[in-house]
Specification:
Elements (H helix, E strand, L loop, with lengths): L8 H15 L6 E2 L11 E2 L1 H17 L7 E2 L1 H17 L12 H7 L5 E8 L19 E2 H12 L7 H6 L6 E11 L3 E12 L2 E4 L4 E2 L6 E6 L4 E10 L7 H5 L9 E6 L10 E5 L2 E7 L9 E10 L7 E10 L1 H9 L8
Parallel strand pairs: 1-4, 3-6, 9-16
Antiparallel strand pairs: 2-5, 4-7, 6-7, 8-10, 10-14, 11-12, 11-15, 13-14, 15-16
Helix pairs in contact: 2-5
Length: 342
């Protein structure tokens, strides 16, 4: 497939928008009636439950001829933080109480790939109001509950099968898993699960903690061997604001921002272009990100689209999320412009 640099920019953006739609037809979340939290085969610690869920995911992927995933420590940390918060506050959402979505949470935890989230609870009424419920002192998980959560994700039927398609994405190579158990005197025990599927097409460096007018960092990257840079897209959405449990109750599926600020293509003069150096070990690329007049305060997604040798559609190989605003620039200056993925 040829680079889209040869096409008018609006045509390229339409194709990218179509790929966005195909990538993010994810179901909002999963909830099923509660089961007994005791199992005759014995309860598992968090580490054991996480490992068992990984085995179930890889079993399901193997049934479709897909390679196994490995646990990702950074994604596990982001997943566990989100799962704990959902369990404590009795909500289920891809957003958290700070208003952050999975990409921002993963990046701020130090993630350097592209992340795609599934969330679940075993309770038939996941919204218990605004009060906080403590996590259980003993985080022990029944094997049957872990199996039930994975089965709920994987056994979905089209067209509402976003969780299943997330599990079976051939580009994923890692996953982060969070499982939490909280107790409520009125509603009983609740298990929450967050699955953060990751694929990482290469490495990215040079992106500061904050952007601002006149700030033109040079973004550099290296792709894995066999991959080619398709484009680099910058999208914007409003900065996150705190959300209540009532707000979170109204959420469902999530996606990348729909407002595309600029797209850079290899050898594209119109957009400034991306310099690409093709090596035996893989492609290297660099581009100057110049925040122009159309760059307003907000949350910016730096999205790296890549192609493999299969001839299929380009896919997202990595995503970085960075803020733009006066307070963000002050924080960035204090941090000395450190790479957001470090």
């Amino acid at each position: 497939m040829a680079f889209l640099a040869a096409r008018p920019l609006h045509v390229a953006n339409r194709l990218i928008a179509a790929v966005f739609a195909a990538t993010f037809l994810l179901a909002g979340f999963a909830q099923v009636p509660a089961l007994s939290l005791t199992d005759p085969r014995g309860d598992m610690t968090l580490a054991e439950a996480r490992q068992y869920m990984l085995e179930l995911i890889n079993r399901d992927r193997a049934s479709e001829g897909l390679p196994a995933l490995a646990l990702d420590d950074t994604a596990c940390g982001a997943a566990q933080e989100h799962s704990d918060e959902m369990a404590r506050w009795g909500y289920l959402s891809h957003w958290d109480l700070q208003g952050r979505k999975p990409d921002q949470r993963y990046c701020e935890a130090g993630g350097d790939g592209a992340v795609f989230e599934n969330v679940y609870t075993n309770h038939n009424n996941p919204y218990l109001g605004a009060r906080q419920n403590p996590l259980s002192a003993r985080q022990l998980f029944a094997r049957r509950e872990v199996e039930r959560a994975q089965a709920w994700f994987f056994n979905q039927q089209a067209p509402r099968d976003g969780h299943r398609r997330n599990i079976l994405d051939r580009h994923h190579d890692r996953v982060g898993l969070g499982l939490s158990l909280a107790s409520d005197r009125k509603y009983g025990s609740r298990i929450t699960v967050a699955q953060e599927f990751v694929h990482r097409a290469g490495s990215i460096s040079g992106l500061p903690a904050g952007l601002g007018a006149g700030n033109a960092p040079t973004l550099k990257g290296r792709l894995e061997r066999g991959l080619a840079l398709h484009s680099l897209q910058v999208c914007r959405e409003s900065l996150p604001t705190p959300m209540t449990t009532a707000d979170l109750k109204q959420t469902s599926s999530y996606s990348y921002p729909t407002a595309s600020v600029v797209s850079y293509f290899p050898m594209s003069r119109r957009s400034g272009g991306v310099t690409v150096n093709r090596l035996d070990s893989g492609e290297e690329f660099s581009v100057d990100l110049s925040a122009g007049r159309s760059w307003h305060d907000g949350l910016y997604y730096i999205i790296v689209w890549v192609r493999d040798g299969s001839g299929g559609q380009p896919y997202i190989g990595s995503t970085r999320v960075v803020k733009m605003g006066a307070s963000t620039l002050s924080a960035a200056a204090r941090e000395g412009g450190r790479d957001s993925g470090s």
